[in-house]
Amino acid sequence: MIYVLRKTVQSLRRPENGRYFSLKEMQDFVGGYIEIVPMPHDGRVLVCDDNGKFKGYAVNAAATQKFYPGVDVVVGDVLICDMEFMS
């Protein structure tokens, strides 16, 4: 499953080539260099801007509540997918 947690809405997103996300595609989506964070419990990864907090991106409440409640905050738009969807 591939889905996107934007700051305000959750939606599905498919890779442009139909198989996997390219580095450029992920960077364009999150707004900069990517950071790949393994998700606890289910084997997926969260892809976010590695400098999102420094850049002052807004808190992504949906991603924070779903994956890191009380531990950390997630900022900016994120992509959540299985590793097989990344090149």
The count of domains is: 1
Strand order of the largest sheet: 2-1-5-4-3
For the residues shown, what is the average pLDDT? 82
Dominant shape: globular
How is the main sheet built?
5 strands, antiparallel
Instruction: Provide the structure class.
Output: alpha+beta
Uncertain segments are none
Please explain how this structure is put together.
By secondary structure, this protein is of the alpha+beta class. It has one domain. The chain contains two helices and five strands, in the order ββαββαβ. It has helices at 23-30, 61-67, and strands at 3-5, 10-12, 34-38, 45-49, 78-81. Strand 3 and strand 4 (45-49) form a beta hairpin. The longest helix has 8 residues, at 23-30. The protein is globular. It starts with a strand and ends in a 6-residue tail after the last strand. The model has no long low-confidence stretch (mean pLDDT 82).
Provide the fold topology:
Blueprint: E1 3-5, E2 10-12, H1 23-30, E3 34-38, E4 45-49, H2 61-67, E5 78-81
Antiparallel strand pairs: 1-2, 1-5, 3-4, 4-5
Structure at a glance:
The chain is α+β, with helices and mostly antiparallel strands and 87 residues long. It is built from 2 helices and 5 strands. Helix content is 17%, strand content 23%.
Tag the structure with descriptive keywords.
single chain; 87 residues; 17% helix; 23% strand
